Amino acid sequence: MQQYSQPHPRFSVLSGSSLSSAEHLSPTASSTRFSLPSAPSINTALGTPKPGARPNIYDRNLNKTRTSEVSASAFTFLFSEVVQYTQKRVSGINDLERRLNTLGYRVGTRVLELMVWRAESSSKAPKREIRFLPALMAIHTQVWRAVFGRPADAIEKSVENEDEYMIIDNDPPIERHISVPRDMNQLSCSSFTAGIVEAVLDGLGLPARVTAHHTPTQQFSSRTTILIKLDKSVLEREEILK
């Protein structure tokens, strides 16, 4: 029998389920959690919208929403609920950070897709970065601005290890209103941001392991370092392209 590889854990929705693959594909196996709404009829989908009806979000031009902003209060409330929901379903700090990283990775894939689409639709000669440093600068400015409304504060290179780079954020927006208990003082909710960065690098063909670390100073108590450890293949390609 032909063997099929398992889906990537970052994107597998049912990977933790006890159902067999045959039950997943069976039309008789139903799940309220993953059920989809019935498709609208042709007359409904193509009909004239009712007067005063709110426009469909899928009909909005993605380029016109480029400068749109999300309420900071709404974003903070949503992320706080995500952390609390996840915290109740983990066994420790490492597991919590791993799950936040996974959620961030899924967001990062969509951020990259949107940014590439906008670049290709607004430029006659769109450019795809294949070198690491230009890609890192784009993450530092464009990705941070798209997600958090402003660029990150700094980029640093490790003196000891040539495969390590760091993005510094002195005041991470997602951690401004999060109070971490004393028994979890090692927790970094910016693991969510690290997942976004890792997804963008993977999408650009620059695989790396990305983690988040608290590096507070007297001036910035919530200062966070996003540590990027490049895959060996990236360093080898950089040497060839020099």
Q: How many beta-strand elements?
A: 4
- Spatial strand arrangement across the major sheet: 1-2-4-3
| Large-scale geometry | globular
Q: Fraction of residues in helices?
A: 25-40%
How confident is the prediction overall: mean pLDDT?
79
Number of helix segments?
A: 7
Strand proportion: 5-15%
Describe the protein:
- With 242 residues, this protein is an alpha+beta fold.
- It is built from seven helices and four strands; from the N terminus they run αααααββαββα.
- Strands 1-2-4-3 form a four-stranded antiparallel β-sheet.
- Helix 4 packs across helix 6.
Give the gist of this structure.
40% of the residues lie in helices and 10% in strands. The chain has seven helices and four strands. The chain has helices at residues 21-25, 42-46, 72-87, 93-122, 132-148, 191-203, 232-241, and strands at 154-157, 164-169, 208-214, 224-230.
Which tags fit this structure?
242 residues; alpha+beta; 7 helices; 4 strands
Please outline the helices and strands.
Elements: H1 21-25, H2 42-46, H3 72-87, H4 93-122, H5 132-148, E1 154-157, E2 164-169, H6 191-203, E3 208-214, E4 224-230, H7 232-241
Antiparallel strand pairs: 1-2, 2-4, 3-4
Helix pairs in contact: 4-6
